[in-house]
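Recall that a protein's primary structure is simply its ordered list of amino acids. Everything else, from secondary elements to tertiary packing, is in principle encoded there. The following example makes that idea concrete.
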Amino acid sequence: MANPVEPNSVLARAATELRGAPQETNWVDISSSILSKVRNTTRRTWPLDSAFPSGSGSGRADTLRISDHIVKTTVRRALAGVRGAQPTEIDLDLDDHACIGMSIAVIGVYGDDLQAAGDELATIAIGVLSDLLAVTLDREAVDVRVDDIEER
């Protein structure tokens, strides 16, 4: 039976190797630079008003907030299966923390019915926003624009 390596021995060996390695004189500067870049690349989010589904019988519905990033990602996934239009950009129209509309940019497919694809995208997006945020939007609140056309 093989002798398994003890985790403590692996850590001890790694610590010894690190102690013996030449020290980088600019480590503080490099460390600050790395942290700055990480902070600049993190995604900032905006909390959107939502509500738990009513019908619990407890009277007034409880409220909650959902990140705009979560909403956009969920909409993007829901729109992925629509034939003839690939979403490239999703923007939420906001009034403070309330979603009042949406803009969707797509790449259309030459020869497909882009009007029908746009209507399907808008219908799906309205359903997702209704499910996630408990908002009721009409078709006019969702703008679908074709930014580019590609061949099949």
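Helices lie at 7-20, 27-41, 68-79, 114-133. The chain has two domains: 7-41, 47-150.
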